[in-house]
Amino acid sequence: MITFPTLHPESLIADSTYSETQSDTSIVEEMDGGYEISRPLHTRPPTSEITFSIPYAKDSDKTLLKEFWASTKGRSEMFEWYNFMTEETLIVRFAEPITYNYVGFGESKMWEITIKLKEV
How far apart are CA 41 and CA 9, in angstroms? Predict the structure, then answer.
């Protein structure tokens, strides 16, 4: 199993953002009388979608993540990711392409990187 690359520790500082959204595993139908009927979509437990950003990533971290994106063939392959908030290892895949925004100035090449993962 492929493992998410280790980034520079100073890249994962307190300014990082993190959000987690749990999937809805139900079907809800509204009836003519104004009430709703609901049932489970399937028996699998809900999964999470995790979005986090690294505000001041180094140029080498950007290169490492671009190579990792290519090695997972975009969103097609799953990999192990260590969740730095919950301190557990999850099996995930990319939910959308990685976003790189340049935030450096002068000779300091820094990137704000946003990553969205979906639990498998």
Answer: 40
Report which residue type is found at 120.
V
Side chain identity, residue 76? S
Q: What is the DSSP letter of 12?
A: S
* Terminal CA-CA length for the chain: 13
Q: DSSP E strands: which ranges in the chain?
A: 2-3, 17-22, 26-30, 36-40, 48-58, 79-83, 88-94, 99-102, 110-119
Q: What is the pLDDT along the chain (120 residues), one digit of tens a residue?
A: 899 998 876 666 557 888 999 988 889 999 998 899 998 888 888 899 999 998 888 889 999 999 999 999 999 999 999 988 888 999 999 999 999 999 988 888 899 999 999 999
| CATH 2.40.30 corresponds to the domain 2-119 | yes
In this prediction the pTM is: 0.83
For 79-96, write each residue's pLDDT tens digit: 999 988 888 999 999 999
Q: What is the rounded distance in angstroms from the CA atom of residue 88 to the CA atom of residue 79?
A: 14
User: Residue ranges of the domains in the chain?
Assistant: 2-119
